Amino acid sequence: MNILSLDKVEFIISMAREVSESSRAIIGDELADDTAPRHYSEFTLAATADTAVSEENAGDSVYQELKSVINGMNEEERSELVALMWLGRGTYTSSEWNSAVEDARAAGNDHTAEYLMRTPLLPDYLTEGLALVADE
After folding, report:
1. In sequence order, which residues have a C-beta less than 8 Å from that of residue 51 and are 6 or more positions away?
2. Confidence band for 88, pLDDT divided at 50, 70 and 90
3. Is residue 50 within 8 Å of residue 114, measured between CB atoms?
4. With contact defined as beta carbons under 8 Å apart, do 88 and 125 qualify?
5. What does the pLDDT average to over 78-89?
6. CA 90, 94, 99, 104 torsion-angle sign
7. What's the CA gap between 117 and 53, in Å, rounded?
8. Cα separations in angstroms, 61 against 51, 52, 130
9. Where is pLDDT greater, at 128 or 23?
10. Distance, CA of 122 to CA of 3 (rounded, Å)
11. What pLDDT is recorded for position 134?
């Protein structure tokens, strides 16, 4: 990471974990609902989480703050954050860091925050990405 600070990434990981925990609580509520069907596929749970994140968290201050922090980053920081997530997810290897950043920059748009926040396991991917970058 050339531009993005470790402190900023750790702050984003912490906030993403809080948002993730609230999404899991919403899914737990859905599973406990007696009127819901008894069969849940991964797709159904993912759709529930996506809907819950966008609707339920619209007024959630942590969700809004995380979105604001990501949107407030400059293009280079956002590109490195996306590349870090891709690295942690296994889309790229640590030796492909520069390519990952270039591809993230090319794919960047006004919806980067939403893209990242809708990524299941975002805090885990960022943590893993940090570990891989540190090993280089």
Report:
1. none
2. very high
3. no
4. yes
5. 97
6. positive
7. 9
8. 17, 15, 26
9. 128
10. 20
11. 86
